[in-house]
C-alpha cells in the first residue's frame, strides 16, 4: 500500500519529533530470523501452495519437489535493486536427509535469491523467469548439459529484451561450478551462503561455509585454477557482461517446477530448513532513504510519508533499523542533512551544524512546497578496493541448454 500525506501532515510529524534523539545505524533491507511465522505475521507472502512452507520456532522448512507446480515465498525489499546497485544475500540453511532424492542423469535446482514480483514468471524451463539473481544448487549427476557431477553457483536471469530467454541466463558452467572433486553439499549440516553482487565489477560471488569454517566448493576452478580466479576454494564467481540488466524487488524461496528429461516424476525432492535470511546494501549515508547519495528534502519526504508506521526499512525512512519510522529516524536524517554532497564525499564528512535546516526553516519549506523534491533513481555503484584477479576476467557461459534452464 502506498501512503500519501499532505504537507501539513508532514509538518505535524516533524513537530512531534523535534526533541527526539537517535543512534545512527545501518539497516538491511530484509532480516528474517523466523522468530515468528513470516506468513502468518504478514512479513512474507506465498505465491502458490502455502502447505509447502512449514514454520517452526526459529526456522522454516521449504519442501522442494520439482514435479509440483512452482510455489514461492516472497519478502518485499522496499525498493528495486538493479545491475547498478551492489548488494549481499545471506542464508543459513540445512538440507535434510529424510526423503531426499536427486534423480541420476537429470538436473533441477534447489534455489534462493531475488526476483521481480511482476516480471519473474513461474517457469524456469518454459522461458519466462526473467529478472532473477540467486543461488542454484543442482544435486544430481546430470548428463545434460554434460556436467556429470553436482553443480553449485550464482545465477542471473536478465531482464527480457525481446531476445532468447535462454540467452539471458548467466551461470558459471564448467569446473567453476562443478563439484567433481569437492562432492555434493553435505546433508544434515548447517550451511551458510553469502551471495555478493559488486556492481562496479559486474561480479556475483557465492561464498559457502559451515560452523567449522569455509567449505570447499571450488578447489578446481575454471581453467584449472586452484580456487578459481580469486584463489579461494570456498567461493564461486560469475562475471557478467557490461550490458547486463536486471531489476528485482523481492527476496524469494522459489520452489521451481522442473519437468524430468524424457519422462515424468520428480528430479529433486528436498526439505530445506532455513534458519535465517538477510539482504543488505553496502554502507549507506545515514538518512539517505532513496539511495541517491544525498541526504536532502526528498529523504525527509519519504520519512514523513511513513511516520509512525511499522515493519519499515531504510527505503521508507527507518534509518535506525528498528522497523519503526519515528523521531529517532528524523534525528538521523537531520544529523546528516547535506543536499549538496554526493556519496563519494559525504560518506567521509558529517555536515556542519549550520547546514542542518532549523525546524522553522523546515516548517516554511514544508508549507510552501511539501518538500516534494525529485527523487533520484540511480545509485552510485559500490566498489571493493583491492580486489584484483591479475587482469583476467572469468568466462560466463550463457545460452540454450537444449531447451532447459540453469
Description:
With 406 residues, the protein is mostly beta strands. The protein has two domains: 7-27 and 286-369, Dockerin domain (Type 1 dockerin domain, Orthogonal Bundle), CATH 1.10.1330.10; 30-280, Jelly Rolls. Helix content is 11%, strand content 27%. The protein is built from five helices and 18 strands. The protein has helices spanning 7-16, 297-305, 327-335, 343-346, 359-369; strands at 30-32, 45-47, 53-56, 59-65, 71-82, 87-95, 101-102, 110-115, 132-138, 151-157, 169-171, 191-198, 203-210, 213-214, 235-239, 247-255, 268-280, 397-398. Strands 1, 3, 4, 6, 7, 12, 13, 14, 15 and 17 form a ten-stranded antiparallel sheet that branches. An eight-stranded antiparallel sheet has the order 2-5-16-8-9-10-11-18, with no helix packed on it. A hairpin with a 2-residue loop joins strand 13 (203-210) and strand 14. The protein is globular, with a radius of gyration of 23 Å.
Amino acid at each position: 500500500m502506498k501512503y500519501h500525506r499532505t504537507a501539513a501532515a508532514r509538518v505535524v510529524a516533524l513537530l512531534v519529533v523535534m526533541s527526539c534523539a537517535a543512534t545512527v545505524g545501518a539497516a538491511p533491507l530484509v532480516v528474517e530470523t523466523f522468530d515468528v511465522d513470516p506468513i502468518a505475521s504478514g512479513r512474507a507472502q506465498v505465491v502458490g501452495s502455502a502447505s509447502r512452507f512449514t514454520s517452526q520456532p526459529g526456522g522454516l522448512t521449504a519442501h522442494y519437489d520439482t514435479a509440483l507446480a512452482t510455489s514461492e515465498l516472497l519478502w518485499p525489499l522496499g525498493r528495486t535493486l538493479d545491475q547498478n546497485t551492489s548488494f549481499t544475500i545471506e542464508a543459513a540453511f540445512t538440507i535434510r536427509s529424510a526423503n531426499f532424492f536427486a534423480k541420476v542423469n537429470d538436473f533441477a535446482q534447489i534455489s534462493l535469491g531475488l526476483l521481480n514480483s511482476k516480471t519473474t514468471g513461474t517457469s524456469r524451463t518454459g522461458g519466462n523467469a526473467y529478472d532473477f539473481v540467486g543461488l542454484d544448487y543442482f544435486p544430481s549427476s546430470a548428463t545434460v548439459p554434460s556436467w556429470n557431477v553436482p553443480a553449485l553457483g550464482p545465477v542471473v536471469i536478465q531482464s527480457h529484451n525481446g531476445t532468447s530467454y535462454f540467452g539471458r541466463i548467466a551461470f558459471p558452467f564448467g569446473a567453476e561450478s562443478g563439484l567433481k572433486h569437492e562432492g555434493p553439499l553435505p546433508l544434515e549440516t548447517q550451511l551458510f551462503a553469502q551471495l555478493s553482487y559488486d556492481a562496479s565489477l559486474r561480479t556475483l560471488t557465492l561464498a559457502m561455509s559451515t560452523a567449522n569454517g569455509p567449505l570447499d566448493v571450488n578447489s578446481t576452478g575454471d581453467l584449472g585454477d586452484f580456487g578459481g580466479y580469486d584463489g579461494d576454494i570456498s567461493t564461486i564467481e560469475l562475471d557478467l557482461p557490461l550490458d547486463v540488466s536486471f531489476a528485482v524487488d523481492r527476496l524469494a524461496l522459489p520452489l521451481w517446477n522442473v519437468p524430468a528429461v524424457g519422462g515424468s516424476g520428480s528430479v529433486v525432492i528436498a526439505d530445506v530448513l532455513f534458519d535465517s535470511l538477510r539482504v543488505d546494501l553496502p554502507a549507506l549515508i545515514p538518512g539517505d532513504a532513496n539511495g541517491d547519495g544525498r541526504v536532502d528534502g526528498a529523504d525527509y519526504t519519504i520519512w514523513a510519508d511513513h511516520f509512525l508506521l511499522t515493519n519499515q526499512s531504510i527505503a521508507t525512512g527507518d534509518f535506525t533499523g528498528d522497523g519503526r519510522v519515528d523521531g529517532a529516524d528524523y534525528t538521523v536524517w537531520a544529523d546528516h542533512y547535506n543536499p549538496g554532497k554526493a556519496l563519494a564525499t559525504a560518506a567521509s564528512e558529517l555536515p556542519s551544524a549550520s547546514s542542518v535546516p532549523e525546524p522553522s526553516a523546515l516548517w516554511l519549506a514544508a508549507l510552501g512546497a511539501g518538500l516534494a523534491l525529485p527523487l533520484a533513481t540511480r545509485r552510485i555503484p559500490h566498489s571493493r578496493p583491492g580486489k584484483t584477479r591479475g587482469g583476467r576476467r572469468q568466462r560466463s557461459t550463457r545460452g540454450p541448454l537444449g531447451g532447459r534452464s540453469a
